[in-house]
């Protein structure tokens, strides 16, 4: 059975910076979850950050919390763990939460904490892609379904 790496908040874990979750309730996603295909990961938590935690955004190659604290190290550790899990589970695709400084695959916040999004990718997504993994988001389930069928 082909495995899928997925952001923990989409999986249903309460791991977001605000202690929330945003579970994906699409019937295909829920079927994959029931089948045991989904491998959840939260790069921020796996990198050592707490729940809740200050909102953070990418600023160039760094990740900075809204408090001004540099949390790049934790984001890097979490990205490395995401890649390790993807390799260990031989995942065919990754479904990562859009807009996140770890998991955004198309857009991220611009680092000004003004709710402004820019084209970009989170650190975990960047490292996953550099390691050869296909990374899509929760809005790409049609593409993901085809990838699973093809592999």
Automatic annotation (TrEMBL):
Highest rank taxon of the organism: Bacteria
Return the InterPro entries for the record: 2-thiour_desulf
Please report the name of this protein according to its UniProt entry: Uncharacterized protein
- Native species of this protein? Clostridium homopropionicum DSM 5847
């Amino acid at each position: 059975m082909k495995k899928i790496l997925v952001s923990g908040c989409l999986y249903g874990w309460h791991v977001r910076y605000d202690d929330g979750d945003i579970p994906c309730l699409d019937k295909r996603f829920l079927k994959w979850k029931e089948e045991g295909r989904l491998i959840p990961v939260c790069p921020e938590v796996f990198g050592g950050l707490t729940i809740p935690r200050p909102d953070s955004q990418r600023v160039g190659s760094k990740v900075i919390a809204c408090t001004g604290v540099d949390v790049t190290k934790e984001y890097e550790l979490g990205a490395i763990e995401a890649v390790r899990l993807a390799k260990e589970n031989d995942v065919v695709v990754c479904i990562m939460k859009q807009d996140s400084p770890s998991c955004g695959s198309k857009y991220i916040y611009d680092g000004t904490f003004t709710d402004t999004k820019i084209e970009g990718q989170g650190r975990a997504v960047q490292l996953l892609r550099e390691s050869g993994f296909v990374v899509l988001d929760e809005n790409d389930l049609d593409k993901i379904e085809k990838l699973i069928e093809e592999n």
